[in-house]
Amino acid sequence: MSGFDGIGGNVTVDGGKLWADILETARFGATPKGGIRRLTLTEEDRQVRDWFVRTCEALGCVVTFDSMGNQFARRAGTNPSLPPITMGSHLDTQPTGGKFDGIVGVLGGLAVLRALHESGRETRHPVELINWTNEEGSRFAPAMLSSGVFAGVFTEEEALAKTDRDGVRFEDALVGIGYRGAERCGDHPVAAYFELHIEQGPILEAERKTIGVVTGVQGMRWYEVTVIGRDGHAGATPMALRADALVGTAKLIEAVQSIALKHAPGAVGTVGLLENRPNSRNVVPGEVFFSVDLRDPDDAVIVRMEEAFRATAAQVASESGLEITIELVWDSPAVRFDPTCIDAVRRAADSFAYPARDIVSGAGHDAVYMAGVTPTTMIFIPCAGGVSHNEEESAETDDVTAGANVLLRAVLDADERLN
Ligand SMILES: [Zn+2]
């Protein structure tokens, strides 16, 4: 046994009720293919929010919502002067979303509140469950909008002014479903934040691990590259006199691949978009435009990858008579989660003897912004085939229960260790 004896006692979540909650809320926006279409601030979103309020209140929680519609279900602690240990994720989905992305985090948190309520277990801090508004960003871009306002990354004014494709303002949609609250978004002290989520990748399933101890979110940079050569007749232009932009591009694509491999296993590099001009079978290509996506858990590695790519580009340009420009168009720094919170998750997984491994998130989550304002980490569970943002998305009952159990014990551990 681990040092967890005593922390959490024998309290565990009711996995059957948790699964039943997943199926029950999946009715709000259910699609014929078994997925969910529950875009933020729609009627379906209102229905699941109302369900959230009713269900949390039945567990003795006080439910409030802020000016961005973020919902907070609070179970009181024994020391009312302490800010809450929070758990959360999102109940909105993609247009053809699944039953688990985001939902496991909110309903898993609900299972924790239920376990505390039914066991009568007391905590020093209040324990609070958060349902973030518009995590997906598919109706109102960008994603993670309301946790972003909460963390001060976006202003509330710019968020409220966002419009969907039909020209509906975010603020009007929020007022329309009755969830624009009086508390200003961000004016809500928190002591820590834990987010349970499906991995949305294949690693845990492939390695037969139940729990991913998430240590951070990888950094990411996007570049746009333009390679300019000289159009020429495919028959009449001798090889020695060509400036073939596509051949130069081929060398650069190969460089992205080899640079990423050189920094394996953490780094990834992708050329996913390419436009070849004039794209005619008997013309030597005179211009190519393509994208580069570089990611790694360590920003310093991304910088080194960029330097290597720029050096290769300079060499290709001088050897091949090409003009190559590289523009950095997006820089999303890596996030490292809080060591105390990560340790709480690791100890919780050990205490249940769940197979676990450290993992870095390849996707963005509300936890990315929360990490800027409070000790934060995440817990991953496997999903079938790593498939997500898809109606086929699926997870095993036992894994969902395990994730919620780890969330429960991590929260109890944090309650003891944090102030
Ligand atoms: Zn999500």
Shape by Cα distribution: elongated
- Work out the helix count: 12
Which runs of at least 5 residues are low in confidence (pLDDT < 50)? 1-5
Strand-residue proportion:
15-25%
Radius of gyration, in angstroms, nearest whole number? 24 Å
How much helix, percentage-wise, in residues? 25-40%
Mean pLDDT over the full residue set: 95
How would you spell out the order of helices and strands?
A: HHEEEHEHHHEHEEEHEEEEHEEHEHEH
- Name the hetero compounds present: zinc ion
- Major beta sheet, specifics? 9 strands, mixed
Structural class: alpha+beta
- Total strands: the figure is 16
* End-to-end Cα distance: 26 Å
Domain Peptidase M20 dimerisation: 216-317
InterPro entries: Amidase_Cbmase, Bact_exopeptidase_dim_dom, Peptidase_M20, Peptidase_M20_dimer
Pfam family, one: M20_dimer
Protein name: Zn-dependent hydrolase
